[in-house]
Design brief:
With 340 residues, the protein is α+β, with helices and mostly antiparallel strands. Helix content is 61%, strand content 7%. The chain has helices spanning 2-16, 35-43, 89-92, 101-124, 135-168, 172-194, 198-219, 225-229, 239-253, 263-272, 274-290, 295-311, 317-330, and strands at 52-56, 59-63, 67-73, 79-85. Helix 4 packs across helix 11 (274-290), helix 7 (198-219) packs across helix 13 and helix 9 (239-253) crosses helix 12 (295-311). The chain is globular, with a radius of gyration of 20 Å.
Length: 340
Amino acid sequence: MLKYFSSFSLVISCFMRLWVKSFLNAFCIAMMMRWKVLLPMILANSPRVMMGGQAVIEGVMMKSEDSIATAVRKQDGSVSLKKEAHVSLIKRKRWLNIPFLRGIIMMGEMLHLGIKTMQYSANESIDKEEEKLSGKEFALTILLSIGLVLVLFKLLPLFLASKVQPLVSDSNALFNFFDGFFKVGLFVLYLWLIGRMSDVKRLFGYHGAEHKAVHNFESDKPLSVENSQSFTTLHPRCGTTFLLFVLVLSAVVYMVIPLNVGFWAKYGLRILFLPFIAGISYELIRLGGRFYHKRSVRTLMAPGLALQRLTTREPLDEQVEVALAALNAVVTPEKKAVVD
């Protein structure tokens, strides 16, 4: 039973970060800026290509502007690599590349890509003798994972906040503060608990390897295990940081929901607002990535970076090799790594 729960938690942990890794820029609470300054920055394009990725089961997926690659360490020690061409819909249909809408589209794309890479990694990482997951079995696992996420981080916090509602009278702001407080608290507790499981520790090691490889790429140093290992496992564009930001932002957005509506209406509206919150978050994070060099931005990002200490581990060289294998498949030839 413990082994099953560990494997199930591993899939849930992967799923929770599927969509957030599409947002390829750093966390920043940019709402504190004036809108007349924000809008031109949002419309501006990034001056350089950004590399994104995510940890999967026994491997890493990397994504560039025109392709994705998933590298998985097999039971026999070899590395299985799968590369696919992929150009985002907002690149192919320029009229969709507008603020807020593009964030929702990218979230949907990364959910689709992430689920595919999760199934690939799950099947590639097991022995040939073991039965691989069928499409239906994997779909059921994903549905159960989504259900558990919605219960743990939407339904339960709302239920707890509703219990303290008599204490806050008719203050909608205070009610949503408690809702947000419970969400963040449960999220941190969940990460701490699953991080104690051996399978999840392994996943978090690949998460750290992914960050180190991306740091290496962005440093313009030759891509190698040695160079990658010299970097930190923390990264400003991490999905863990983004999730924390979404939890905080949702507490603000949910204040538009009247306090006197029914419990299930509150719950349903919270789910419906998720794409809207993701769209806002995408634009704010684009700004944060451009100004990460500023001390004020790094200060605002500190809680998210601290939270990454729960979701990353120092990787083994063999894990960094896998991350670099995926990265090599999507970068230009002159940036190829030398992996012994």
